[in-house]
Amino acid sequence: MMNSLNEITLLPSAIPTDIDSRSKVNPFDENGKLPIFVSPMTCILDRDNFNIFNKSKVIPIVPRGVSGCITDSWIAYSLSDFEKSLEYDLSNKKVLIDVANGHMGKIYDLVKIAKKKWPTIIIMVGNIAHPSMYTTCCNAGVDYVRVGIGGGNGCSTSSQTGVHASLPWLLEGIKEVKKKMISLYYSGGEESGDYEPIPLFFTKVIADGGIDTTAKAIKCLALGADYVMMGKTFAQCEEACGKVININGQRHHEYYGMASAKGQVDISGGCKKNPEGIITTVPILGDLDSYCNKFESVLRSAMSYTGAHNLEEFKNNTQIAIQSIEEFKSFDK
Length: 333
Description:
The protein is α/β, with parallel strands linked by helices. The protein has a single domain, classed as Aldolase class I (TIM Barrel). Helix content is 34%, strand content 17%. It has an 8-stranded parallel beta barrel with strand order 2-3-4-5-6-7-8-9, surrounded by 5 helices. The longest helix is centred in the middle third of the chain and has 20 residues, at 167-186. It is globular, with a radius of gyration of 20 Å.
């Protein structure tokens, strides 16, 4: 049974905690950033505004088709462009192999080649939509994997192809895969099954698709995601590069998925395959710093309610319950 993010809720700690102030929790990763990646979308990020996002509390990725940004930032490549880049020195580079179908074996063959040539390269892949694929990522040495297919506000893959997996189902499934990996590691691989004994290396998990509220993002983190990836939210910030359109006196940004016809034009100059993304507008709701500060505040609050001092405790110890859609009506205000 696949539940949606709206159908789950986080439970507060069942016992008294020593957290008497939100200032006592740490909502940041090891680099001092909030656990949020900005989707590499050309309606959000370009060479003119990238540095603004890079200096904020979130983590941007240079989209495909955009050049001239900060060289030590995350950079998105197509699979073919990544293969070509293996001819150059990728030491210490942060690379996203930005494809919709992360189930292609070639991705992981190339990751293994890159990791062998440049041990210091950091690689993100995606997207995967089956928990069993997580072991493939770990085996290949993938550092980060995006999970979720078709759930994005600018994506129409699921509605066209019928392929989909909910984020709660995926994240809980990956947790079970991790438990199996740990069991095999400590048993010396004596158990039988579909998993081979491997070094205890865990790829970081990025929940991706349709995460357009703070509550949904925080639920994903509590379900075990190390990070979330958000697009629509940042398209609604003043600093986004999308075309500004006035609708009934309200300023909007143009918003579209990278698989849409317009997204394909941005990447390669033309629409070369069936579009699996939409083109729409979203209202401009505020500035980037205000959103980041709000997210930090509500994440601190959620962590204090659940007794988590840091993100690792939050993703491993928070209890989840299923709620009815009727109950969600009292939740969603």
